[in-house]
Amino acid sequence: MVALTSERNTRLRIGDLRIEPVAAAIKIFGGSLVMRNAAGYLTKGATATGCVGVGRAEKTVDNSAGAASVEYRPGSFLFANSAAGDLITIADIGKACFIVDDQTVAKTDATATRSRAGIVEAVEATGVWVRMDEALARVA
Asked: Model's pTM, two decimal places?
């Protein structure tokens, strides 16, 4: 490409709803934690490495037949808190948290076996508010 010599109609992505392809043979439930795998596909939250949290699934999608996409939304969501030594507390606000499964986050990466979910925004008795923004989670 060469530099512009006139105006350009540059496409814009508005809003926070995203639609992207799902990894093969994966079922993602509406309301669940969604992560991007190392190959770039979206998958349900799970203990795994090489992934990063991207947001919450808006609808249930079953990609057992292949070629399905899921609607997801980045933002702040309330997920279940892990237990015992991985319990997230108020002292962890502003720190990264890690994916246990499609509804649970933890304080640690369990000796490099878990991927980042996002940033802890608040902690309450019913769970952990996690800010899910892929770019932020990758650098946290």
From this structure: 0.90
